[in-house]
UniProtKB/TrEMBL annotation:
The keyword Metal-binding applies. It comes from Acetobacter cerevisiae. GO terms for molecular function: dioxygenase activity. This is Aromatic ring-hydroxylating dioxygenase subunit alpha. InterPro entries: Rieske_2Fe-2S, Rieske_2Fe-2S_sf, Ring_hydroxy_dOase_asu_C_dom, Rng_hydr_dOase-A. Keywords: 2Fe-2S, Dioxygenase, Iron, Iron-sulfur, Metal-binding, Oxidoreductase. Its cofactor is Fe cation. Residues 9-118 form the Rieske domain. Pfam families: Rieske (PF00355), Ring_hydroxyl_A (PF00848). The keyword Transferase does not apply. It comes from the Bacteria. Gene3D superfamilies: Naphthalene 1,2-dioxygenase Alpha Subunit, Chain A, domain 1, Rieske [2Fe-2S] iron-sulphur domain.
Length: 396
C-alpha cells in the first residue's frame, strides 16, 4: 500500500463528478479516505478526510454540494479548499492556535482530459509524463461523448475475496473471453457475437510504459469518429430511428457509434481502466480482498434515450445480474483459492512473448491474446516494490 498506492498517481474522480463550485465526492487513495472537492474558483482539491483536531472524518456523504466541511465531534469547520475557517470556543487555546497552519491535508492533484488523479508523492513526475502514450487512448475513449462531454451515470460496487493484482491482470486478458463469457455471447444476436469474436482477429495488446497498457479487441471501433458510413448494427436500429426525429443522419450515426462503446480496454496502472464503455476502479482492502467499482458513463447534454441504452448495455454485462462481471468475479475468486494450493509454483505470463515486437516508438506489442499488458503492469509493480526510496519511506 505504501510503495504503490502512496507513491503513484491514483485516479480519484472524473470532472463530471464535480460539476459546480462546492461539489464534492468522497473516495480513497489506497487506504486513505479523501474528499475531492471543487472550490468557488473552480479549482479541484483532494483532501485527507481527517479533522486536524482529533482525527474524525469531516464528511461521510458519498457526494453532494457543501460550503464547508464541519467535524461532527467538536465542530471544527473547513472550507472547500481545506482551509480551517472556524473553531468553536477558540479562547481555550489562548494564543497557541494558528488556523492557517491547520488546514485539511492536501494531496498533489492533476488532471488529464477530465480524469482527475492524486498522489502523496511530491516528487513524482508530472501526470502528463506519467500517462505518456496512454493519453492518446484516453482521448479516443472520450469520443464516446459523440461531441458532448463524458459524464458519469452511477456505478455498481462489489468486493471479491482475492488479491487486487488478479483483477489488474483481467482488464487486458482477451484469452479468457470466449470461455468465461460464453453465457454473454449466447445472450446476444449473431451480429453482436461476430463483433466479439476477436480472439483470432487483428487486435493487439501494447505496453504503454509506466505499467499502463491497451488491449485493442475491435480495431474498427478504436476511433469512433471514423467509418461513420458503416451500416448501423441491427441492435441499434430502433435507437437510430428514434434519434432521427431530432438529429440529421450523420449525427445519428455518431451517437449510435458512441453508444456501443470503444473497441479497446485501457489499463492505467495501478487502479483504473477505461474499459470499452465504463470506468473500472479497483481498491485493495486486504491482501485477499478487493473492492471493484464499475462506473457507467454517458453523454453530458446528449439525448437521454441514448444514455438510457448505454445504461441497459452496462447492466447487461457489468450489472449484478449481468452476463459478464459475475462470471469474471467467479474466475478471480478461483484464482485466489487456487493460489493457496502448494508453494513456490510459478504462474505463467509468457503468452505472446514469442510474437512480441517493438513499434518505432519502442513500445512492445503482441497479438490480442498476449499477456503483454500483464507483463507491463508487473514490471512497474517490481519497480515500485524494489525502489530504494520507496523501501526507505515504508520503513520510516
Amino acid at each position: 500500500m505504501d510503495r504503490i498506492f502512496k507513491r503513484n498517481w491514483i485516479w480519484v474522480a472524473h470532472r463530471s463528478d464535480l460539476p459546480d463550485p462546492g461539489s464534492f465526492i468522497t473516495t480513497f487513495v489506497g487506504q486513505h479516505p479523501v474528499i475531492v472537492s471543487r472550490d468557488r474558483k473552480g479549482e479541484v482539491h483532494v483532501l485527507l478526510n481527517r479533522c486536524r483536531h482529533r482525527g474524525a472524518t469531516v464528511c461521510e456523504h458519498k457526494s453532494g454540494k457543501a460550503a464547508s466541511f464541519v467535524c461532527p465531534y467538536h465542530g471544527w469547520a473547513y472550507g472547500q479548499d481545506g482551509a480551517l475557517r472556524a473553531v468553536p470556543q477558540p479562547k481555550g487555546y489562548g494564543d497557541s492556535l494558528d488556523k492557517s497552519k491547520l488546514p485539511l491535508v492536501s494531496l498533489r492533484v492533476e488532471d488529464y482530459n477530465g480524469m482527475i488523479f492524486a498522489t502523496f508523492n511530491a516528487d513524482i513526475m508530472p501526470l502528463d509524463e506519467w500517462l505518456g502514450p496512454a493519453k492518446i487512448w484516453i482521448d479516443l475513449f472520450m469520443k464516446q461523448g459523440a461531441g458532448w462531454p463524458i459524464k458519469t451515470m452511477g456505478e455498481h460496487k462489489f468486493t471479491f475475496p482475492g488479491n487486487w493484482k488478479i483483477q489488474l491482470e483481467n482488464t487486458t486478458d482477451a484469452y479468457h473471453f470466449p470461455i468465461v463469457h460464453k453465457s454473454f455471447l449466447d445472450s446476444v444476436d449473431n451480429q453482436t457475437q461476430n463483433i466479439f469474436d476477436f480472439v483470432e482477429g487483428d487486435g493487439f495488446v501494447e505496453d504503454l510504459g509506466n505499467g499502463h497498457s491497451v488491449m485493442v479487441m475491435i480495431p474498427e471501433l478504436v476511433d469512433l469518429e471514423e467509418n461513420l458510413d458503416a451500416p448501423i448494427p441491427e441492435r441499434f436500429q430502433r435507437l437510430a430511428e428514434a434519434l432521427s426525429k431530432d438529429y440529421p443522419p450523420e449525427k445519428v450515426r455518431q451517437i449510435v457509434r458512441a453508444v456501443g462503446g470503444s473497441g479497446f480496454n485501457l489499463n492505467l496502472y495501478p487502479n483504473v481502466a477505461c474499459s470499452m464503455a465504463f470506468f473500472r476502479v479497483l481498491r485493495p482492502l486486504a491482501v485477499d480482498e478487493t473492492e471493484i467499482r464499475h462506473i457507467a458513463i454517458g453523454m453530458d447534454g446528449g439525448p437521454e434515450i441514448a444514455n438510457e441504452v448505454r445504461l441497459r448495455l452496462h447492466e447487461h454485462f457489468q450489472g449484478p445480474l449481468g452476463f459478464g462481471t459475475p462470471d469474471d468475479s467467479e474466475a478471480w475468486d478461483r484464482v485466489q483459492r487456487g493460489a493457496l494450493a502448494g508453494y513456490n509454483i510459478d504462474i505463467l505470463l509468457n503468452r505472446g512473448l514469442e510474437h512480441e515486437a517493438k513499434r518505432e516508438s519502442g513500445l512492445l506489442f503482441s497479438d490480442v491474446t498476449a499477456e503483454t499488458g500483464m507483463r507491463a503492469a508487473y514490471r512497474q509493480w517490481l519497480t515500485d516494490m524494489t525502489c530504494e526510496t520507496a523501501i526507505e519511506e515504508a520503513v520510516q
